Amino acid sequence: MTTTSEHAQGASTPSSMGGNRLVVLVSRVRELGLLVVLLLIIVVVGVQVPQFLTLSNMEQILLSVSILAIVAIGETLVILTRNVDLSVGSIVGFAAFVAANLFKQNPGANLLLGILLGCALGLVLGTVNGLLVTWGRVPAIVATLGTLYVYRGLDFLYAGGNQVSASDVPDSFLSLATAPFLGIPLLIWFAAVLAILFGYLLHSSRTGRQLYAIGSNPDAARLVGIRSSLLVFGTFAIAGLLSGFAGVLWAARFATVDATAASGLELQVIAAVVVGGVNIFGGSGTILGAMLGAIVLGTIDNSLSFLKVSQFWLLAIDGAAILIAVTLDAFITRWIQRLLITRRQ
Fold first, then answer.
1. Of 139, 158, 164, 182, which one's alpha carbon is 20 to 30 angstroms from that of 59?
2. In the chain, which ranges are E strands?
């Protein structure tokens, strides 16, 4: 039975190989298109406001999107399996307050302890999401919409209306985000290393290929022996873990934290992932694309400030970006399906 399953996983018909090549080609075109859009934004805004092109502002853009990018990595894994996690913003906010409050109550606490506490909290909350979806058989959008409010409620209950400010925590904690390493802030390094690590694992490991298979055809994945429930559970756990880590960095980056921290972040994360070419219906997309999506949205946000445009437009832009990307993905999927059917005839 095992041999049959492994053979089925490794076997590829000419049409399926052609389909895979088409999906890869489309992904590359989407990523190239995002680069072109990014360059256009930089040029257009830079011509009108030269200060936009300074190295310090480019660094600020990368700092502003780094936390978003870390959360987007976990969201990408979840969406690849035809699921979605709407609770990531609440997890980030909860972990941010818990970590900041730890250092407020214990200024001499070890920095690693705060990081581990935030990651552990995120992992537990992500595990709950995974259990609801895989063991409880609750649709992911329903389960995580519920936990979005539950986790935020727990955050408010724990915070009790209190706030942690920069003066309440040690400088060593605040430097976790902005301290330079080789001239680049640590926060940017964290996002870059995690993106490279998960991008490599997703592209080169057997588990990564299985995640794509689950998203492409869940029934076929189960038939060839892929442990779909376990892998889906794992993606939610990892998404929670990364969100918890991002929460610690959020507290270090913004210093002032209360129970409303990271409210609405889930919309920005999903927008970045979907704009980056990760198919909301699962089965295709890359970590690189999600990172580019985050950078594009972060650049738009930054440019609005320079152009003195109301930040309320950012929400409209995020929503419009999701609609456009989903519509484009649906069109591309139908086009690939028609093309493959034509080739078989």
1. 164
2. 180-181, 184-185
Question: Shortest CA distance to 266 belongs to which of 239, 238, 304, 235?
Answer: 239
Identify any residues that bridge with 128 across adjacent strands, giving them in sequence order.
none
Q: What amino acid occupies position 271?
A: A
Residue 333: how many other CB atoms lie within 10 Å: 16
Per DSSP, 50 falls in state G
Angle between helices 287-306 and 14-48 (to 10 degrees): 20
In a 13 Å sphere around the CA of 35, the CA atoms on its Cβ side amount to 8
Dihedral-angle region of residue 181 (phi above 0 means left; psi in -120 to 50 means alpha; beta otherwise): beta
Q: What is the pLDDT of residues 42-85, one digit of tens each?
A: 888 898 888 988 999 999 999 999 999 999 999 999 999 999 99
- CB-based contacts of 127: which residues, under 8 Å, 6+ apart? 233, 236, 237, 240
- For residue 26 the two structure tokens come to 């489309």
The single residue listed with the structure tokens 């900041």 is 100
What totals of helices (H) and strands (E) does the chain contain, helices first? 14, 2
Q: Give dist(CA 123, CA 118) in Å, integer.
A: 9
Which backbone phi and psi does 54 adopt, to 5 degrees?
A: -70, 155
Which residues have a Cβ under 8 Å from the Cβ of 284 and sit 6 or more positions away?
Answer: 23, 26, 27, 80, 212, 215, 216, 277, 278
Query: pLDDT tens across 237-282, in order?
Result: 999 999 999 999 999 999 889 999 989 899 899 989 988 888 888 8
pLDDT tens per residue, range 275-301? 888 888 888 889 999 999 999 889 988
Q: What is the signed CA dihedral for 100, 93, 98, 59, rounded to 10 degrees?
A: -30
What is the enclosing helix (H) or strand (E) of 52?
Answer: none
**In the numeric block, which tokens belong to residue 117?**
């506490």
What's the length of the chain? Answer: 345
Q: Look at the pTM and tell me if it is higher than 0.90.
A: no
CA 294/CA 70 separation, integer angstroms = 10
